[in-house]
């Protein structure tokens, strides 16, 4: 028994490399997008300051990568796949060609084939208003969204991607990657095939259809098995799964072949970004921050300091009188008296003073003072 489905004849034109490679000076780079690739945002007046200083170009943000192409020299361009981006941040740089005007710049560190690439994309529009605007916000939003996708299965349920739909679930699927095999379940969606172990859901495999090179049903020492070979960009793995009975294995094979063909023609990479909505969100955050730092007269209260001055005056008078009495030899030393408030004997307080006035150096409560 042998059934085979392969896309070898269309591999070269549909092989997905855009999100996994860094490339330079590819002919017609920004006009020949991969099937299913969409431009999410366009940022004008951007210079590739490290690679092509002095050339004004455009920065294109797609659902697979970041593209830059020069408007001065058509052959100068570059492509940075999101899977190769290690670090991104913004900086303020001073442009030498325009009187050292401060401008925003996007710094990207990418790693491809053990080679480090550093990119610096600078806003050369010279517009003052763009210095305070987050013109590179779309890049941070898309890249962060992709990095946060880690878990596949949670409490036995597949964590769905945007626009992902579950078509079928198959239980009793043996993963033949080890000698004893691991029992688990298949989840078939419109984007990928997922297997996870019943005993440990963290042991799982997510196979996007675009990374599947071929599907086969072939004989193995365990009987008929579904054999999946991934593309070179997907690691070139060969995976085997056994499903009983054979009739259910054949039905699953037909379903996967059909979904694979549909997805290859119209791929959906699960990345969504609305530039207008993002700009509104950023503008609201900026306005909220501005309001938080804005001076409001109602947030401040004028304190009545007359109580403090009154206490300080009485204390100073008391201390001055005590110093004068200590220097005088004519007045006898007063006898101590018992104080109920303190619970011990103390010197008698002169007339006109209260114990509270001498005990508190500062008033216990400041009251608001309104003119």
TrEMBL record:
MF terms (GO), sorted A to Z: phosphatidylinositol-3-phosphate binding
Any single Gene Ontology cellular-component annotation: ciliary membrane
Domain of life per record: Eukaryota
UniProt protein name: BBSome complex member BBS5
Domain BBSome complex member BBS5 PH: 37-91, 164-218
GO BP annotations listed: cilium assembly
Homology family: Belongs to the BBS5 family.
Keywords: Cell membrane, Cell projection, Cilium, Cytoplasm, Cytoskeleton, Membrane
Gene3D superfamilies in the cross-refs: Pleckstrin-homology domain (PH domain)/Phosphotyrosine-binding domain (PTB)
Location within or outside the cell: Cell projection, Cilium membrane; Cytoplasm, Cytoskeleton, Microtubule organizing center, Centrosome, Centriolar satellite
Family matches, as Pfam families: BBL5
Broad class of the protein's primary localization: membrane
Provenance organism: Drosophila hydei (Fruit fly)
InterPro entries: BBL5 (IPR006606), BBS5/fem-3 (IPR030804), BBS5_PH (IPR014003), PH-like_dom_sf (IPR011993)
């Amino acid at each position: 028994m042998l059934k085979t489905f392969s896309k070898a004849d269309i591999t070269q034109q549909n092989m997905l490399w855009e999100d996994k490679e860094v490339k330079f000076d590819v002919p017609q780079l920004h006009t020949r997008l991969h099937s299913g690739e969409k431009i999410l945002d366009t940022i004008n007046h951007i210079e590739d300051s490290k690679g092509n200083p002095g050339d004004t170009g455009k920065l294109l943000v797609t659902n697979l990568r970041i593209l830059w192409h020069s408007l001065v020299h058509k052959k100068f361009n570059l492509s940075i796949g999101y899977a190769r981006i290690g670090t991104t941040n913004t900086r303020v740089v001073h442009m030498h060609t325009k009187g050292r005007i401060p401008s925003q710049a996007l710094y990207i560190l990418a790693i491809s084939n053990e080679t480090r690439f550093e990119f610096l994309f600078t806003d050369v529009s010279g517009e003052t208003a763009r210095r305070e605007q987050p013109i590179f916000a779309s890049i941070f939003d898309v890249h962060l969204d992709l990095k946060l996708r880690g878990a596949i299965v949670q409490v036995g349920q597949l964590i769905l991607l945007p626009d992902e739909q579950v078509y079928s679930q198959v239980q009793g699927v043996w993963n033949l990657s080890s000698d004893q095999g691991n029992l688990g379940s298949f989840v078939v969606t419109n984007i990928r095939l997922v297997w996870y172990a019943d005993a440990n859901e963290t042991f799982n495999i997510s196979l996007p259809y675009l990374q599947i090179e071929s599907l086969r049903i072939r004989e193995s020492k365990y009987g008929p098995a579904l054999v999946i070979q991934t593309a070179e960009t997907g690691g070139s793995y060969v995976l085997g799964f056994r499903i009983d009975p054979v009739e259910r294995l054949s039905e699953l094979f037909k379903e996967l072949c059909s979904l694979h063909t549909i997805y290859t023609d119209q791929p959906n990479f699960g990345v969504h970004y609305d530039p207008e909505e993002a700009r509104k969100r950023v503008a609201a955050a900026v306005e909220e921050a501005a309001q938080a730092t804005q001076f409001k007269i109602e947030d401040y209260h004028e304190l009545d300091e007359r109580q403090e001055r009154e206490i300080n005056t009485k204390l100073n008078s008391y201390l001055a009188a005590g110093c004068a009495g200590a220097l005088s030899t004519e007045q006898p030393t007063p006898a101590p008296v018992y104080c109920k408030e303190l619970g011990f004997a103390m010197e008698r307080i002169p007339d006109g003073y209260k114990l509270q006035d001498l005990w508190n150096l500062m008033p216990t409560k400041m009251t608001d003072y309104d003119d």
